[in-house]
Every structure is written in C-alpha cells, then in structure tokens.
Amino acid sequence: MNIEIDHLTLNVESAEVCVQFYSTILGLTPENHDAWKEGNAKFPSVRINARNMIHFFPPDMWEDMGDLICSPGKANHVCLAYTRNEWEKLLQRLNEHDITINGPFIMTGSRGKGTSIYITDPEGFTVELKTYELI
C-alpha cells in the first residue's frame, strides 16, 4: 500500500494566532494566509513539507460544514519531526518565546525511537516535536 497523511485540520478560535505560532515558533511555511486575510480563501494553512500541511478552520467554517468536520474530543496531538540541526533552532525559538516544554522523552514514532518534547499551541492543542537523533 502507498498511503500517507495528506493534512491535519484543526478547528481554532483564532486562525491568525495559529498561523503566526506555527510559522514563527515551529518554523512551518504559511500557505494561502494572505488570500484568507483578503477574503479570497475560506481558511489559512501552514505547510509541513511538500506533501503535508495543517489547515486552521476558523469558527465560520465550523458552522458552514457542521457535522462533516466536527469530531469533538477525538484529537490527541500532532507530531512534527525535525532534523537535529532544525531541532536545535526550534529549541532556541521555544526558549526565546518562553514556551513551556514538557520533556525531553524517548518516544517511538513512525521511524522508530526518537527524542520528543511536548508543547501546547495557542488553542490548547498538544504538539509533539521530535528528532530521530537521540539526545
């Protein structure tokens, strides 16, 4: 089988705050952010890599799509994996912005064991940040 995760969608109160957090702090690239701010897109996103992204659905999307997109209490966390070099830069940004870090922990992910820390985004969603190089 050749299956992969395409995107993760989060229902958020403030899509703007989330785009800023995920791009400035976590280093992801905003996508369709300007179009959304101009009213030409329904929601903003951030790109994880060429094949994966996170969409931020603001409250008006919840109403528009209703039960199609809402599964309360079902999400646990998302994990983003970084190279060792990017991990070091990430830790600096987290410290610069006084982001509370839980860990590090040795955790198993899709590629085996790695070093993980956990943070909470501005909407209260848990984000696992991992490097597969044990630290």
UniProtKB/TrEMBL annotation:
Which Pfam families does the record match to this protein? Glyoxalase
Q: Which domain of life is it from?
A: Bacteria
Q: Where is the VOC domain?
A: 4-132
What name does the UniProt record give this protein? VOC domain-containing protein
